[in-house]
Amino acid sequence: MDDDLMIEIESLSKSFGKIKALDNLNLDIKRGELLGIIGPNGAGKTTAIRITCCILKPDSGDVLVDGMSIHQEQIKIKSMIGYLPEEPNLYERFKARDLLSYFAELYGVPKGEIDSRIEELLELVNMSHRAEDRINTFSKGLRQRVGIARALVHDPQILIFDEPTMGLDPATAHNIREFIRELKGDKTIILCTHYMDEADSLCDRVAILNQGRIMDMGTPQDLKSNIRGDLILNIKVKNPGGDVVKAIEGFSTVEDVEVADNQYTISLKSKNDIKDIINVFEGNILSVNTKEPTLEDVFINSFKQ
Amino acid sequence: MKFTTITKWELKETLKSRKFLTIFILQISVLFLMLFVFNAFITNIESQEGISITPSLSGFASLSVDDEGRLFSKYINPELITVTHASFDDSMKNLNSGKTMAVVLVPADSLDKIRNIDTIEVKLYLDQADPKRSVVRDEVNNTAKILAITLSNSWIDSLTPQNSTPAVVTEENTGESLPMQIVTKVMLAILLFLPLFLFGNMIIDSVVGEKERKTGEILMAMPINSSDIIIGKSMAVVGVIALQVAIWMGILLITGFEIPNPLLVYLLVIITAVPVIGVTVIIAAYSKNYKEAGIGLTFGYVAIVGILMIPPLIYITNKSLISNISPLTMVIRLFSGDLIPAWHFLIPLGFVIMVSAITYWISIKLFQRDDVVFGPRPGLIRLILEFGGLKRRGG
What we know:
By secondary structure, chain A is α/β, with parallel strands linked by helices. Helix content of chain A is 34%, strand content 30%. Chain A folds into two domains: 5-218, 3-Layer(aba) Sandwich (Rossmann fold), CATH 3.40.50; 225-304, Alpha-Beta Plaits. In chain A, strand 12 and strand 13 form a beta hairpin. By secondary structure, chain B is mostly helical. Chain B folds into two domains: 3-45 and 177-387, no CATH class; 61-159, abc type-2 transporter like domain (abc type-2 transporter like fold), CATH 3.40.1710.10. Chain B is 63% helix and 5% strand.
């Protein structure tokens, strides 16, 4: 066992009826690391998270949390994790403060510390003014904030967020991202998301999951540089066609060429041939722009492969 | 002991809910209404007039009678047939115009004929178009028979020696009449067990609600066992039932009902609540949604009522020892003033503990299974086979 590792997912498999949600999944997460898990719907992200939180039992394999197996030390593991599911799923009839008190008691927070801890958390998620209001009067953004406070109520070492910004307005989503950024380093965090820019800007490492298996994993920068070079050239033309594609593919720096409608997307290893490539189009050009690959490109590329 | 936290918060939030309080108060109002009906029932029994449990037939049929000596008409049941006295001609006019359904003609010399022990010929004219004519015909025939028997007895009496003294039998009542016993013992006992079946929806909401609202996912991520969740939620409902039963018993005692050994009766009712809720939790833990749970609850409660009610009936008929298995039998025995040996109480207690252990074990096992909570849920037969060790999970 590596002391530096907080979570070790070992050969994890889980099926729901005939559907294989996880297929021999292996994944390590370091202490204080923020790992992003991205993948399409049904990739197995939530299943992997639920097994790590000891909510689901795997068919085979194990998850070690701080060296403890989910098959033996469920209660200890659960008390180390703060879990925020995709929907905050809070008790509608509870007041925000009561809800946090209830979960603090369940997590075994000492009685004398509960009130001060709740005040601190309400302040942190900017909900002090709504502490005495019932959950059923809250918007989705406010519920998510209460959900985050609930996940933090016992000051866990590990935080697991499943789509925390899903369906939120841009301002609230931004606030939650900033909040996660603040927690980074202090806690080990798993972030499941559909938003590539969110994973790119927040995560130390990103794992791409599909059909219950890791397809690619690394730092966002590594993943981006591993695909189709370092630069993407987009050229919009008046009239597509001819032998242009063949001509472009002849340049040594060109890795890939895609044509969609009247747009050419060219992946380049370096900037060296840009000028010559543009000359191939001989005045047929409407616009030219360059961009660096994003995680979205990595994601799409993974699925192509 | 994390279940106490769940019990505390479930109780706290339930008692704060306006919807729950409305239902709680409505249930007490129903009890008051039942007491009102009880009192009316008892008053009727005690008035010696008895009560009719069938709908009133007063004025069901009409009969016009030409009976100068009022010999015949005084024996006709006035609750069933409205009798009017009129001459034969007027009576026939009433019959033809539909004002009456039948006419009875009693001969004017009937009293003389009786004295001479002659036969009287009574004539009955019926409206054949009226479907109720058969009732009138039967009633007139019955009246004729009663009249004949009465007159015969009277004639026999007149032949007996005058100096003989008829035996005088006086009736002294001891104890309660059977109807009173049914009211004060059986019905009162059933009334006390009624709140056990009034809060099934609460546990259904508490357990199935966790699945439907998806809050169960959070609860299962807490550092607590499934047993804490199930027992915590169940005890909250038992607590509410205990409160309701205490209020009901208080009301019954205040309104003059006699409850011998009220503390023991209270304990018997409350311990019965534990397995009843246990059965309800099994239904809730297995059900996907409220609709399914509602159907399951109906079947479950019919079975529980049967298990509670059949032993007292056995006890009433042959005082079998096994009938003490139902706590309801013990409560009825307490109400009857039976001298119950202490060890008899071990029978229902043992039964309650056994059923509770089984039902809560099944509930916890069900709640521990992620396929039951999150799906795809296994079928009932497969589950039974798996619990029985006859099939391997996932196999």
